[in-house]
Amino acid sequence: MKIALAQLNYHIGNFEQNTQKIIAAIESAQKAGAELVVFAELAICGYPPRDFLEFEDFIRLCEESLQEVAQSCRGIAAIVGGPSRNAKPEGKNLFNSAWFLADGQVKQVVNKSLLPNYDVFDEYRYFEPAFENRIVEYKGLKIALTICEDLWDLKDDPMYTRNPMDPLVEQGADLMINIAASPFDYDHAQARNQVLHRNMEHYQLPLIYINHIGAQTELIFDGGSVALDVAGKVVAQCPYFEEDLQLVETADLLTTTPERPDFVVPEKLSVIRQALVCGIRDYFKKLGFEKAILGLSGGIDSALTLALAVEALGKDNVRAVMLPSQFSSDHSVSDSEALVRNLGCPADLLPIQNVYEAFEATLAAPFKDTQFGLAEENIQARARGVLLMALSNKFGYILLNTSNKSEAAVGYGTLYGDMCGGLSVLGDVYKTEVFALCREINKDGEIIPENIITKPPSAELRPDQKDSDSLPEYEELDPILKLYIEHRKGPREIIALGHDAALVKRILRLVNLNEYKRFQTPPILRVSPKAFGMGRRMPIVGKYLS
Amino acid sequence: MKIALAQLNYHIGNFEQNTQKIIAAIESAQKAGAELVVFAELAICGYPPRDFLEFEDFIRLCEESLQEVAQSCRGIAAIVGGPSRNAKPEGKNLFNSAWFLADGQVKQVVNKSLLPNYDVFDEYRYFEPAFENRIVEYKGLKIALTICEDLWDLKDDPMYTRNPMDPLVEQGADLMINIAASPFDYDHAQARNQVLHRNMEHYQLPLIYINHIGAQTELIFDGGSVALDVAGKVVAQCPYFEEDLQLVETADLLTTTPERPDFVVPEKLSVIRQALVCGIRDYFKKLGFEKAILGLSGGIDSALTLALAVEALGKDNVRAVMLPSQFSSDHSVSDSEALVRNLGCPADLLPIQNVYEAFEATLAAPFKDTQFGLAEENIQARARGVLLMALSNKFGYILLNTSNKSEAAVGYGTLYGDMCGGLSVLGDVYKTEVFALCREINKDGEIIPENIITKPPSAELRPDQKDSDSLPEYEELDPILKLYIEHRKGPREIIALGHDAALVKRILRLVNLNEYKRFQTPPILRVSPKAFGMGRRMPIVGKYLS
Known about the structure:
2 domains, six-stranded mixed β-sheet, Rossmann fold, 19 strands
């Protein structure tokens, strides 16, 4: 039997488009001779639908769309992810399900057993775990059909108290099919590879795995859909970040040959770049926007953001604005101009000195007898924010935020100033990684001028300011941040690893004190296993390490 | 036996202060002759600790603090909420527990069975449900000790698949004790009253219920701690929003007398006012701030916010700033001045015209040949934001946001302009409720000038602008918003209730399109059963009703 792997880019709540895409893929698969086509988890509504799932109206639209898809399954079957209702009074009212559609009908609904409820996942907010696990039989093939997390608990310290694969294997499964909505991070392909292979070794069954591609605000999906034979070798693998339809023969899955390749795990920097470009592109496309604007400071963060935005949206769709003040160095404009020339995008020069002086004059009475300080520095950053937002409002741009993760972590940024924007491109990329990504962008020729990469980072909000005046060097800062944020190590553990005790305490205190700023940050494209945003939920009024 | 009810205001992660408060209450209770004192859910660390629970270091501090509390339990026992570890490999690594402390030791740890994971609750993110339920025996008293949600599932459509009270009653319980962290909303006291009485009727047992008071950013806790006799009559009730220690005799709980009162459910407007004042006060106190600043527009939202802030922080600690533009009516300043006189707080007048003109001049080239519109309106709101933030940064104020829930819902506000602030006071109060609260504030004499209440609402960002130019009247808007937001009704259901179909679709579309703005809103004091913020999680790139 030929089975098709359908790796698609869905749009949350866009039932018309999702349904059309699914039906078109069923038709293509059928033309190619497939008897079964497999789509991703919650494909019908897009992932994550979040609290839309609490609306009866939204569930009705899911069901109607699934019925429409079922109508198109004649002579071919489809597995499509969507919510289903819990008919029993006890437990939550929905399941996260795989709908098995054939003969123009819903033939079977398989429910997810393990509901991830950590990091960016909130599935137990909406769904009841499956009450039972039964295999799907189709044309003599016994399918152990599971949903994403159902395969992820084979470990020494399991998060769940039961494993749905055990009863499915007892029922004599021939093949595992797992439909997923598993978001990208730079470690994810490796982790997924391990999880899939651990299941295959444990259960001695071939596996078809289908994931989403595309971005939904913060969450980026890389795909990685794959069919692995009984020895764990690749029979078919969809390309990362692209829609694709691949066909496999079940006979090929049940055997193996030595020449089949292993799973391809992509290179870290190149895949982060691809993910960020995908994240920008889909944010604009799915919101119905085409054009971005951003402020170019002459620094490395805004330079990298611009390069990625041009890659995502095209050079004519990204407008760069230089907003120098009296404290800006000459190279802040000349370096930006060189970058803009390299990229070929439209650019403006709007000096902020007049606006700054008007603020100073307006505040003369209340600021009388005070010294130039943080308030005056922030006025500059905020004046820039107002100008960029004015252009955004006037011409329908989305403003791109250019803050990096190191700054966001320690609060080195101005709320309503450089922290403005509809989307944060680099908010999950540490400063040291920003440098590495610039090198990646430049690997085939200079796009980001060398001087932007090599000059000492500065906010240029007062004379001769440098980031290193108030922060440790990024090479020292970032590893401590990573231990605290990604690895959730406390101060004792980080100090025990050899970091300076006073510095560790100071940095952790800064991170926690600045929770109030991050609360108002734009959505951040998630590329690490622990990004600021929906996956990291911290109290503001807390008094822990702060 | 005398049992003490300890209703306290904890601070998340402030172990030193929480531990001292708990030990001081144990000492007071012991002096008053109590043999058992009961504290709230997760009292040791404050509620909600959120992702602090993912730090081994944080759990260690919880355990050390509980050991310290145990040391003070000699001749008296205490029930204290805190996390505990799951010793089994399977399941999540923590429980949400009630620690039973006596004889200087931990005697028993009782784990929560039902983990709320809806609205503002994320407990299944951190905790494993109890594997078993066992009563606590102490001096011959058999206690059915449960934790908050454990009592909330007695209904026709239960959210959970088992009820922990059933096995506890089978073990011969004499008394229910429920320790809670149950946040306030204007319906909550009524709902809690019903839940407690339903349990008492079902299990025929007296009940002691202990809750938190005080605010933790968005979440406000009203207390409502109570001891109810076997007939559901009140033996002792702690006052709302106040720390308190009450003593009851178990003999009094096991009997009833006709003269005992019923549970007191407070009046809606007065309790919303108390909650908002508590929310402001605790946000400042727990962050270590004393002084607030806000912009006074002459409108009703900023007037009410100022009155509440003065009530919370004292008149000398709230600075009001009037920021008129060329479009401001004369009464915008004169009404604000009258309000400031009534309240006696410091005030400034900072006209924004010069700043606005500087922006206009700076944007002259890119804005050439365009019409005055939204961009220019927003510049005014943002200029005000910059001035308020400058004063905030210079003098250490927290800026209070004055947006109401109706505006926040439909996106009638300027991001980085009037949407600035450290805390949104009225973001969960619809405009029609804002009017009612002003009447409440004025009930013993005019504080908010009558003209502020009666004039037509206007943003005053262009000549003769009124809210009703672009929005329906609030009397028409708010009920539709409430059906959609609080009651999660879809368009069909709302239209079926008699609302105009085109209007409903327009409003729901506005709500969903403006998710991107609310993403960057300050934290909102939650007073309704469904507030914007942590309890309402919506996609930004979604295409549902939008």
